[in-house]
Please model this.
Amino acid sequence: MSDRYAIAIDIGTSGIRAQALDLGISEVISTAITLRHPLPGANVVDHLHFAITVGRETAHYLLIEAINDVIKNLNIDLRNVERTAVCGNPIQISLFHNVEIRDLAYWGEHALERLEITQPPRNATVTSSEEIGLEISKKAEIYIPPAIKHEIGADALAMLIKSGVLEKKGIYLVSDFGTNAEIGLVIDGEVYSCSAAAGPAIEGQMIEKGRLASPGTICDLELTDNGWKIRILDENLIARDGDVVDPSSGKVIQSGNINKKAIGITGTGVIAAYSLGLRTGLISLPKIKSKDHRIHLQEDIYLTEEDIENIGKALGAFRAAHLTLAEEADIFLDEIDSTYMAGASGFYVDPNKSLNVGQIPPSSKEIYQIGNTSLAMARDIVLNPALLDDLQKIADEMRGKHITLATSRTFEKIYSLELSVSQQGMPFWMYNDWLARYGFQKIPPKVSDPNIHRIFEKDIPELGKYGLKIVEIGSILTTGFERCINCLKCVENCPENALTIENGETKVRTDLCSGMACLRCELSCPEKVFKYRDFLAKKEQKE
Model:
């Protein structure tokens, strides 16, 4: 092993993934990940709102502090790191780079002019570790890939490039299955893109027993003659067979090969349960037809009707986005030649179940699962820095159209139908009738036997000789509120147990906090003195 290292970093909405590479042999040495994002909130909009309200500097500090914690666990001498590359969506990369973010929150040129906001170019950039605040060699260069536009980030560019669809003739659908699902419909190299706010349920968050993909989590379920077979991720993030259970009662019918109690269920596991529940009649939307209205998996791991509602909303965002893109591009969904599934959720989910629940178009004939393209792109850049210039050229020359779903009347109409399906049990024939009334295409029939191509064994193909390290993070924001009567109503009403009051100081653990979308702490204050925006970052010890 040489003494020359590089680090590749993927900043996702739900966590950070990093890999150390030996530049002498161009190989991965180690991998470290977090199971949460250091900023409060469950999605990228929450992170943006927090950064604008509390302050960009505070948000940058929390993110970099967490990244420094991660790279310290890569088992290398950080003083010998020569290069680092980072990939992610525009909000995460802007917070990493500590550049203007308000243009990502306000839509339209007139709004930007009125607020005197200058939009940064977000081109390919080489900066220094000292400027960013990374605790590695001061001589190390930091490579930041370009965004296609300010709405479409380096992560979307990564999935389009790594899938190879930009160079092909035909029609292709590429999706990064995260909380802020980036979706591209590519027609002979022209890109129609959107970002579907699927929400945290798609990665196991906002699910009562949910967890991000990590060792010990249920990632899939299979229907057998006796019950549902559980699939659990092992220490190397490879799915292994677990117990066969009766989902109505949780009774273990047959013990599995992996002798391990599950610690939770991932978003892909929830999707599997949703699919099997619909198929077997255990779920009749919006209800679960067991005695206690739960789906029981292993011991204390179960799904509630609220969980089913949350995943239904998330899946509805995917299907509504697919239809919206197809309508905008004037194509039919059954004309798509191949579908590509990127990201951890897109890798671990069973494509047949995704077909069944609308996460990918039911007419998908050729399906490719391509893993974490964002981390793969960062890895490619640190091994070949000249690639950064090539990426900028691709971004500059890319032809395409971005559809903002938040302002799309087409998406609004279709998503309202999705909510009627998941929350009110609207039958599918009625859904298609309403699509026809709106003048939209109907959902095509589901293919019976798609060709599924799983490119790698796991979403991060190489973990390195030192393997995977899961890093606990938890920064503390601290403030004091005048006229606080210490009634602790804010602490009692925090749904994530993220808040404490000690010696007159109010502290919030940022990775647990639900952020500006919650504010139960502020709303529950009887004296109305609790102001969330008053929090300022201080260097504190993790609890």
Notes: Residues 537-543 have pLDDT under 50 and may be disordered. The chain has 16 helices and 27 strands.
